């Protein structure tokens, strides 16, 4: 008996020693990477700013300091984080069919989003991706274009009330419109955010994104016990209840109202949706939720929890991202009279004096506006950082990064590589003309990520931005009232201007 105990202890000691050796070897590999000096246990966590503006400034400083390396490493406690912003390194991470798992830090989104398309891994992610890809088919997106226009028209009416030459912050006008759009396209239900910006749901969406990012960068808030006792656990749970109660209520009502006959009818509409240029009224449109109610190709049906995961994910990914992108675009276009003149000319060529809604064919003709949107996303990518967990050791130039390390792709640095974007701080939409984009490295510009886990909703986003921005520039001449230096980008989960976007509007029609 004693001999058996000795053997077990000996094996345990050997295994523990091997594990320590492996961890030390991995640590040495990580420490060989460029990055700020770290201290034991805390790493760099104590050095990081706790407010969003300060944190993003630090990340910018590190990207500049280690720009020639195209990467830097940080230690959050004992956890290594490696940020990459060189096209060749970005390609290694994003094009791989192996490194598909999102970084561990995404787990703080699980209470809200569950393990839907954004946060799931493995076979569940592949199944959901296969299931959801058809819901963004161009024929389905045509119904969404009607929603975009209806809500944009409300926004234009609200903007007309402040288009008397006075300076104002346009940020919330655009953001609330985007929120109404995402609610209606996701759930077929509007929260009327444009007329009721104080709704609990609207405020909870904004607060939850803020809380998640704060927790991601604060290691002492990672354990649930500490987050709930010394952190913001109560505020988090309060917002979570509001968000889930709303989504659950909408899904339950939809399920109760949907008979087998109505579901079959809806599936027929999906299959027969042929006229991609038809403007459909509200009662004829399908929402993302409607499509999730339909049976899969295998004949199975998603549970209520499955549906909520994807609806909540769509709400999260499709609201702030497009709103931020449009705000940055409005500022950049409003600060460049020549660019704005070209947009007005393009709108005149497409619409003349008509105030009709834009059709899908009209949106395809907005080529210069699309270049402006892409260039705004280059300078101010909506998602400033996104992470993956390496599933095997990877070689990045002269550096080898060990398995299980979190690698963060950082578009703000990546999109300023002078090899691909000369004079990178200049707003130049012509960069995205077809002839100038042709030979550019495919991973030098990734506002919607890239590779197998690229953003499934990027066509949706571009169409929404075209509809909303074309509505603004069909009706107003915009003059930006801030310099670029006064914008103060905040790198939360979404990149926002700290104090908003201040403009003056002049009506094009009296």
Order of helices and strands: HHEEHHHHEHHHHHHHHHHEEEEHHHEEEE
The CATH homologous superfamily is named Cytochrome P450
Task: Give me the Rg, rounded.
Answer: 24 Å
What is the total tally of β strands? 11
Query: Could you say what the CATH topology is called?
Result: Cytochrome p450
Continuous helix count: 19
> How many domain units?
1
Span between termini: 97 Å
Indicate the structural class: alpha+beta
Largest sheet geometry: 4 strands, mixed
Basic shape: globular
Give the overall pLDDT as a whole number.
85
Strand order of the largest sheet: 1-2-7-4
Show unreliable segments: 16-25
List keywords for this structure.
3-stranded antiparallel sheet; Cytochrome p450; 4-stranded mixed sheet; globular; about 500 residues; alpha+beta; 19 helices; about 50% helix
Break the fold down into its secondary structure elements and pairings:
Blueprint: H1 2-31, H2 52-65, E1 71-76, E2 79-84, H3 87-94, H4 110-113, H5 122-132, H6 138-160, E3 168-169, H7 171-187, H8 200-216, H9 224-229, H10 233-257, H11 260-272, H12 288-293, H13 304-334, H14 337-351, H15 360-365, H16 367-379, E4 386-389, E5 394-396, E6 399-401, E7 406-409, H17 411-414, H18 434-437, H19 458-475, E8 476-480, E9 489-491, E10 495-497, E11 502-507
Parallel strand pairs: 2-7
Antiparallel strand pairs: 1-2, 3-11, 4-7, 5-6, 8-11, 9-10
Helix pairs in contact: 6-7, 6-19, 7-13, 8-10, 10-13, 13-16, 13-19, 14-16
